[in-house]
Amino acid sequence: MKGLVTLLTLLISMGCMAESSEVLPSWQDTAARQRIIAFVTEVTDPASANHVPASERIAVFDNDGTLWAEQPIYPQLFFVADRIRALASEHPEWQTEEPFASMLKGDIASAFGSSHDAAIKLVRASQAELDTDTFDQVVRDWMQTARHPATNKPYSKMTYQPMRELLTYLESNGFKNFIVSGGGIDFMRPWTEAVYGIPPERVVGSRVAKRFELSDDSARVVHEGTLEFNDDKEGKPIGISQHIGRRPIAAFGNSDGDLQMLQWTTAGAGPRLGVIIHHTDAEREWAYDRESSVGKLSEALDQAPQRGWVVVDMKQDWQRVFPE
Amino acid sequence: MKGLVTLLTLLISMGCMAESSEVLPSWQDTAARQRIIAFVTEVTDPASANHVPASERIAVFDNDGTLWAEQPIYPQLFFVADRIRALASEHPEWQTEEPFASMLKGDIASAFGSSHDAAIKLVRASQAELDTDTFDQVVRDWMQTARHPATNKPYSKMTYQPMRELLTYLESNGFKNFIVSGGGIDFMRPWTEAVYGIPPERVVGSRVAKRFELSDDSARVVHEGTLEFNDDKEGKPIGISQHIGRRPIAAFGNSDGDLQMLQWTTAGAGPRLGVIIHHTDAEREWAYDRESSVGKLSEALDQAPQRGWVVVDMKQDWQRVFPE
Q1: CATH architecture of A24-74+130-317
Q2: Do B264 and A211 touch (CB under 8 A)?
Q3: What global pTM score does this model have?
Q4: Does A307 touch chain B (CB under 8 A)?
């Protein structure tokens, strides 16, 4: 038995050594990486005054622009565009009715951009009156087959490798990771477990109303068209409170839509981590902030220094952006 | 090493033997217990045609009358009554204003029973304008100190021992357990992890609206008075879809408020388990069903045979009701 104990001790100490040099391998060893690791080390150390019990280690992540690319427009809008095309034969009136007509001519940006009502109409047409099982499958099929127009890669490969490593690192340190996105909750849930290891119940997003329908041979929950909850800006802390029920200790975002989530998270007592992904890399990804119509980052960037948030400079701080 | 392997094998087989005779020890070995165990055995057996992957093993539990006693009135109503008394000195107008006046005279049932509006007013007064951290603490303090009027026991001891064992049994078989209750989501979340092992994010319930408030030195989420979502009847499958994002494979309830949750759960494809706790034990707990104003069970009881739901006869099927 003594040999076995020695072997186990050796394996455990090798594991620990491996961990410190191998966590977050796609991150440059700059201040951003060091501050994230210092925070995790501190809250997980039982001897630290800032130790946080595992049950309270809640981390929230925006999705668009934080976990995957959101340029040139949010991926969900490409999904909606594909759905409108697929449904067009059942809706001959769409050939002349806006915003559908623009969409069917391939002018996705102006179809969505013409007005808030137009965008709502399009999103509604992509899912209204489908039951949850059917819509799940529609989204799953799309994720399997769709390709990003700029790179021709599947959307699962438009996720950020450094952020995927961060999710794994946090989870292996007892954190529970949640997505808190302005995107549609039912658009994300069918694939987040496969792509990010985040199960459906840990995804918070914008919601349409639903209704229950019972017939002789089925019982279904059906999507209605009305937007019931907009999980953006002030909506994010509210969505977190309603879905998760606890104030997170770490929040990750990239735009002013994440401002209130970052404020609420980092205003709590004890150790807190706020992180902003700043898109600075026009070669490997996109470079945008204050003037962008997608993922505008201005107010949150201004508040970052005084609130102690880590600003990740994608170009400087990430060794690589996308997975192989 | 050979001795070690033999020892391990022995320990593992002892573990398995122990498991089959020791699961659900507070249940009589009647058909109800056997059907529950048969279901769990089937869905967890990789060789079974009805095997369900762990990620899809979602089980939902009503709370009042399913996990803890709901007689003579829902425990949350006693909490509200205690809050009204605690706040009365700040509200001298309540001495004459209904439903507060009745409540302060100790007539809890008629204060709540006078109208739906009256009940809403009382619940609102118990939490409106409190921020989430403060309300959490108020509920925690109440759970520590309050006693059930009929038994003088803390409410955590008014939970059902057989159901607590069932939660443990399911979790040890890879299930994720969720509470789906008509009760207030913010009333349950502060204590469900300690009492049932169910963390806040796995609790679905009725919700009031909330708002985000930022000031120079704080960021808070504040409870408003308006009931935003009623997690009862048709609300239960909708709440499950919005919070959990998957159709459960097992549902446990005790009243007609759980009917639609049971219907939706058991109408899905593959193996399904629907269970109704029937309160038949006037000596150890309470006996009530079709005529009760609390936890009325009539339609769901009628549908149980044709839908294949297990009806647990509390008097016959449970060796004991409450924990020590």
Answers
A1: 3-Layer(aba) Sandwich (3.40)
A2: no
A3: 0.93
A4: no
